[in-house]
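Slide 14.
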Amino acid sequence: MTLANRIGNILIKGLMHIACKLDIKELEKVPQKGPMIIIANHISFMEAPILYLFMRPRRTIALGKAELWDSVVTRTLMNWWECIPVRRGEIDMKSIKECFSVLEKGDFLCIAPEGTRSSKGTLNQGQAGTSFIAIKQLVPMLPVVHIGLENFSKNIKRLKRTPVKIRVGKPFTLILEKKRFNSDERQEITDEIMRRIAVLLPKANQGYYADSMHLPWKYTKEQEFV
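Slide 15: predicted structure.
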């Protein structure tokens, strides 16, 4: 990490404390070592710096839409935070291979399965690409949710701090009886992964998954923290 990177991280961390009232105590539950896939809801651009900056020194690599590399400012931040660019709407094998590499090195890979932000703070349906990575790697997964960031834009315009709470669930693993899955099955696995996120949210924020929370766990099994 360069000196400019360190100084930039300190400044951004300070600004986040000014703009938000952060309740991040549950990040202490996150294991100290990987490999692990962190799955999170996607509400705001603020999520990546929260996980990257406040989980240090644990190395957490997140995915980011390729368009973020088009601007000098956001490209600098994405490179500082070691994000992996992904082209949405297509099978991006380069990005997938980079994800595999992160996990093979024993680091944390952070994925927002929805693929795009939900400005209302409610869950959209997850994209099946998440299950593709999870099936291929079979490492533990950890649900982490952000509650309150949907109010950030409104509050910052009024010069108000935004209360933001982070909740961390239990790690879980996939239980698979075969190695190959069709697209419908991969979506079903992704939906179950998303329900692991949904259980940490208030019912009003469960969105697409609010009516399926009664379903049994078919593909996943919780683990105890180690």
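Speaker note: The beta strands are 20-23, 36-40, 60-65, 84-86, 108-111, 141-147, 162-168, 172-174, 220-222.
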